[in-house]
Prior knowledge:
The structure is a homodimer of 330-residue chains. By secondary structure, chain A is α/β, with parallel strands linked by helices.
Amino acid sequence: MPATQSKTIAIVGATGVVGRTIETVLEERGFAVDNYVPVATGRRGQKETTAFGKTWTLTAPDDVDFSGIDVAFFSAGASVSEMLVPKAVDRGCRVVDNTTAFRMDRNVPLVVPEINATRVGGDAMLVACPNCTAIVLVMSLAPLLAAVPVERVVMTSFQSVSGAGREALCELDEQIEADAGDKAPQVEVLPRQIAFNCVPVIGDALESGYTKEEEKIVEESQKILDEPELKIVPTAVRVPTRVGHAIAVNVELKEPLAPGRAIELWKSAPGVTYSDEVPTPLDAAGSDMVIAGRVRRDPTRPNAITYWVVGDNLRKGAATNSVQIAELFL
Amino acid sequence: MPATQSKTIAIVGATGVVGRTIETVLEERGFAVDNYVPVATGRRGQKETTAFGKTWTLTAPDDVDFSGIDVAFFSAGASVSEMLVPKAVDRGCRVVDNTTAFRMDRNVPLVVPEINATRVGGDAMLVACPNCTAIVLVMSLAPLLAAVPVERVVMTSFQSVSGAGREALCELDEQIEADAGDKAPQVEVLPRQIAFNCVPVIGDALESGYTKEEEKIVEESQKILDEPELKIVPTAVRVPTRVGHAIAVNVELKEPLAPGRAIELWKSAPGVTYSDEVPTPLDAAGSDMVIAGRVRRDPTRPNAITYWVVGDNLRKGAATNSVQIAELFL
């Protein structure tokens, strides 16, 4: 990756799992961070953080002066973004927002650089980074769609607990510990016990019966792929994994596509690959690649295939994708 | 449940997770066990077992005399069943076989009593109990099918580790313990690490790309439902839960079926129900009910619905279904 000119960057939500991963990815990709403004509520009593070889004092969200900041990454929830992103943009700070606040705003590009980097125009000040599951899904669908139109997608996700943040990860560990000690696991962060369980509820339930997470997966995928009519039926499920989302995908195409051809398409597309060894969430964790596997003909429909795909929800699903967007800015 | 006349029963695989659950279910259902022959290889040095209020000596598979046994439950793998079931039947012992050995044999009924109890004729000596995931699936599909013909099913399972037996359960616990102690988890029983992971490989891979487990789910469901042409596209995934299988099901029907009508059908069918609280594997564990939830319209296809269903793989998925078959025998 090319080193960029030295910059001042901010991460709003610097102490969260995604914020910390953005720091790591910036370092890995040789992003020249001259000055760093880590922004966090500091509610765990934390006052400073170490990154880019130095220790930096945390700034409270209300105290940030965005005027000297080149790029700010937002990953502290939609309400924080709704409040601060307009202020940041007003001050000339470019923003990569990794919350739901602006993703479906028709004036804001929703970008997965391998798919729609061209949406980031030279004067773009605000770009949204999509939902982690939507990113894994579209990274696997885009190479197929480039070759053959898609009729319909039925997908079921296996979403790791880190997608719900640091406190959810602690809750998983505490529930496992309680279980080992024959104590009743406490349920506070996630809606149901997640240790030794699978919970098909992510986000609020909508009147349609789908959840907010499922709606995001559908609408964001349609926007990223620029296929507003693409038919997607989602079931989003939280599972007791820590990092790495997996999706079981059934795709009905409008023309034939042999599994072997799908493999070629994945292997030749950037950011995605195919593994003959069945890829699992643990294989995805720590990698920037989205990995498809187990592609097979679906004998029940002409032109349908079924496959499995995994990706690191913190990296390509959030931090890496956000940093790639920042690279497009600069 | 009616108490039956006192009987001599055998369980081949008595010390396994399903064998132990069969003992429990027999006790719960007031099955009058006069004499019990627990059959096990005793490879963990175990010589006796306690059940039905007494302690019984384990018999090795090769030493069983089936002539005095009224009903034998087999749950010790297909090769043991292939060897011993014919001998048992020859001696006039009725057999409930919970392995793959005879399930697809056209002369052997494959029975889920709520669906096809009539297949157990008065002179039936051998009845097969289906795969645990197939049972949960067909229990949820049968009430719908009775009302509206089904065009196609796309399903993704979340299968608990107990479905792979006691050693797999130990492996899950050991891997979690190793992880807590920052040691590398050992992988011996299951094909990949299961703690904090999801593994879409259950059983050998077939040339089609599907696994043996996926093939079982399709073929057994078709046989039980007496719908040999029913289209089912399966993905079977092992997840780090202990007990309770879940399935995300998308059903295309040949006529309209409102979600509310599906709920009525489930609530009025025996052995299955519907919960407005989202049912999870932990909710199913310990129950004999198969519980559907989250039914919703699928807007991408006329007459399609999507739902989630859970069942205890050891009970209704194996032991309870086996004992119900034995009750039909007697």
